[in-house]
Amino acid sequence: MLIQSKRLFTGVTTDRRALLRGVGTLGLSAAAVAVMGGCESMAASTSASAGDVDTLNVALGLEHEAINAYQLGAESGLLQDPVLKVAVLFQSHHKAHRDALVATIKKLGGSPVAEKSMNDYATALNAGSLKSQGDVLQLAARLEKGAANAYLGVIPSFNDNGLKQVSARLAADETMHWTALASALGENLPSKALTFGA
Question: Which of 21, 44, 159, 161 is deepest in the core (most CB within 10 A)?
Fold first, then answer.
């Protein structure tokens, strides 16, 4: 019950990729990314903009959606152990991303966007359309790969190596998720090098 279809899934991935690629264009400050990555001392030496809070709230909205998508998948009855345990673990990673975003938004003087109700997410994701564990995993794998590519795509926009590292760490989480999901689906690993971030 993770995502309604390939069409919706592609839209979510594109939105996340566009958000993170647009970070350089919108001017997400070093302070915002530093706080999000836990680099408080680096954040103290830079300044944030109003656009940072808006951009971070879009990212927060996407994390809320990911958390609830995993919740819908977990509650669907389609995921069996140990796959269910892995889905809950990945959801906890997205919760950590959410918590970092909320803390960053507050430290920048903004108000974090509110999470919607579970019913709203179930409706938006058309949760009833997935019929098997494989359906759920396939869609989750595509979402995670899109997220990895999005985080990798934003790295060149940073001049500071510490900020590049924060983005790379987030991409690593998403890549790990994709690899585990692809393995569970029995998919082959990419045959070519440099698959992610292209």
Answer: 21
